[in-house]
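Progress report, Aim 2. The chain analyzed during this reporting quarter is listed below.
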Amino acid sequence: MNEQELKKRIVKEKYAEIAKGEKQAPTCSCSNTDLRRDDTFTSLSPNYEGQPGYFDRANLHIGCGIPTEFIGIQRGDIVLDLGSGAGNDCFLAHHLTGDAGKVIGLDFTNEMVEKAIENNILLGHSNIEFIKGDIEHIPIEDNKIDIVISNCVLNLVPDKEKAFGEIFRVLKPNGRFSISDVIIKGELPASIRNDAKLYTGCVAGTIQLEPYLQIIKNSGFKNPEVKSIRKVMIPDNILAVYMTEDEMAEFNSESSGIFSVTITAEKLNG
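Predicted structure tokens for the chain:
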């Protein structure tokens, strides 16, 4: 098993446990242990209160933004949510597309797809579909989707170039995406970057913002824009496991650290 296959297996196993309620959502703690919500770790999950279409049962607290806020979903749009989990962002998107549109949720974890389908049965939406699939090989034909959204998932994908290439392929001409994700500024020590067990947290799978934006541009997208950015604070006692005091001081400066971002871009016609 190569490194990419190992990372995918770890992510799949972890998120299957979350879907079944056996583990809490991973937080930005550089930890692979079970965490309670009241622990002194930083959670990336945003506050969904007041969001139209929100269904609390579908919120597993594994997002790092609200991508539907920034992309202007319209009635009748076909929306694809990559890494849809229990369906949280799909239900927000459905409120915007209405019955005239369609929402497709894609996840590569059986347990997540099953949980999302159960939630949708409770809500009774006939134009939401949840399917199993890999973001690096999206099982959808070319030029079929108006808008792609994703929430704290692309950082977990080993081959980000392939993932953004697939997003470009399935979007219609003039289609758009809004992706909430996690990036780093500054340098992470190799002990964090190379630890596969940390891949389901917010650290080991992240890359710098500029290379992230360059991958988007190289995939053919135009006008990438950072719509929101906020720093994620990690307690020093957690950082101390992986960093020296000097590395911690640099990591905690304003110019370095882990950030949650939401980025939009367009696939322009011609």
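Residues 3-19 form the longest helix (17 residues). Residues 71 and 178 are 6 Å apart (CA to CA). These observations will guide the mutagenesis work planned for the next reporting period.
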